[in-house]
TrEMBL record:
<dbReference type="InterPro" id="IPR051396">
    <property type="entry name" value="Bact_Antivir_Def_Nuclease"/>
</dbReference>
<dbReference type="InterPro" id="IPR027417">
    <property type="entry name" value="P-loop_NTPase"/>
</dbReference>
<dbReference type="GO" id="GO:0016887">
    <property type="term" value="F:ATP hydrolysis activity"/>
</dbReference>
<dbReference type="InterPro" id="IPR003959">
    <property type="entry name" value="ATPase_AAA_core"/>
</dbReference>
<dbReference type="InterPro" id="IPR003593">
    <property type="entry name" value="AAA+_ATPase"/>
</dbReference>
<feature type="domain" description="AAA+ ATPase">
    <location>
        <begin position="24"/>
        <end position="332"/>
    </location>
</feature>
<protein>
    <recommendedName>
        <fullName>AAA+ ATPase domain-containing protein</fullName>
    </recommendedName>
</protein>
<dbReference type="Pfam" id="PF13304">
    <property type="entry name" value="AAA_21"/>
</dbReference>
<dbReference type="GO" id="GO:0005524">
    <property type="term" value="F:ATP binding"/>
</dbReference>
Length: 338
């Protein structure tokens, strides 16, 4: 497939450099040292395209220009770059600290920080971009966000779920189950509790979607085989994980296994629509061999997906993807040069 995003330009990143990145490949791996802006670039793309509830730190960048499906869109950044969950938690934490602070210097510091952070409510999204992007699906996944979980989200899941990773995986599994049963507006539990639930109907629908599910399960199990684990999805849409023929719980998987399952479940949930997949350091918690096979796995599951990865790990490129690497040094220019 032709790349959906073909060029990214960011003006005054961190107030001293510009980014100009021409993208001409289906798979793009952004490589660079810590602090060079890899993750910031991905978060900016996500916030602008998905119109996410983001906060913008004015020091991060002034504006971003995206070339999407032959169209050019320019977005001024008037405010900034924390994912919505992190930003809400940060503001709540600062307000709580302010109410209990006694030292005037501490109070002033907190007030200055709160003043610096502003919700970008006045930034109107380009309607033409909205219309264009409605034809695609844009997914952003950051391993760092998996450590953050709001109390409301935590309280909404069952007692055997302990981490944000577990929560996100269960959410993706529920979406996939609904998709397999062609009832995507309902969760797996709602489907099974429904009086309309009919095992034969469900089985028939499942079989019609079997090809994609088969590729997905075979791909997951190619990673799991060394540990004796195996993923099964039965005709009722149930996800079952076994180890040496014994059923085990999702929360017994290692962090790397959970991370892999989340990524690949997110990918299969995009099948059927052209997709831009933004992955921020997906290699965290993954064994070296798994890192090497990750891109192959994603492209096998979804063949209409443009993948943009920010990483520190050259292992991700080792299975024939070396020509997809982009060094931050080669797309970064001093603001005075441009």
């Amino acid at each position: 497939m032709q790349p959906i995003i073909s060029r990214i330009r960011i003006n005054s990143l961190f107030n001293y450099k510009d980014i100009d990145w021409n993208i001409n490949k289906r798979v793009n791996v952004l490589f660079g040292a810590n602090g060079t802006g890899k993750s910031t670039i991905l978060r900016l793309i996500n916030c602008v395209i998905n119109d996410s509830d983001c906060l913008y730190d004015k020091r991060k960048a002034k504006n971003i220009t995206l070339h999407v499906a032959g169209e050019v869109f320019h977005h001024n950044l008037s405010g900034t770059l924390l994912d919505s969950r992190s930003s809400r938690m940060l503001i709540d934490t600062l307000k709580n600290e302010l109410s209990s602070a006694e030292d005037d210097k501490i109070k002033k510091s907190i007030l200055d920080t709160l003043e610096l952070i502003g919700v970008a409510q006045n930034a109107k999204k380009d309607p033409n971009l909205s219309n264009l992007i409605s034809k695609f699906r844009v997914e952003y996944l950051s391993t760092f966000d998996m450590t953050i979980m709001s109390k409301q989200e935590y309280d909404s899941v069952s007692d055997d779920v302990y981490t944000q990773l577990d929560f996100e995986i269960k959410k993706e599994i529920s979406i996939l189950t609904g998709k397999m049963l062609s009832l995507g507006h309902k969760s797996a539990e709602e489907i099974k509790d429904s009086k309309m639930f009919n095992r034969k109907v469900v089985s028939d629908v499942f079989q019609s979607n079997f090809k994609d599910v088969k590729v997905f399960t075979e791909t997951v199990n190619s990673f799991f085989k060394d540990s004796g684990k195996e993923l099964h999805i039965d005709p009722d849409g149930d996800f079952i994980i076994k180890q040496h023929d014994e059923v085990i719980g999702l929360n017994t998987l290692s962090s790397g296994e959970k991370q892999l399952l989340l990524i690949l479940t997110r990918v299969i949930n995009c099948v059927g629509k052209d997709t831009i997949l933004l992955l921020d350091e997906p290699e965290i918690s993954l064994h070296l061999k798994w890192q090497e096979n990750l891109i192959d796995a994603m492209t096998k599951i979804h063949d209409r997906c443009q993948i943009i990865i920010a990483t520190h790990s050259p292992a991700i490129l080792m299975q024939g993807w070396m020509d997809c690497i982009v060094d931050m040094k080669n797309i970064t220019f001093s603001t005075s040069e441009k």
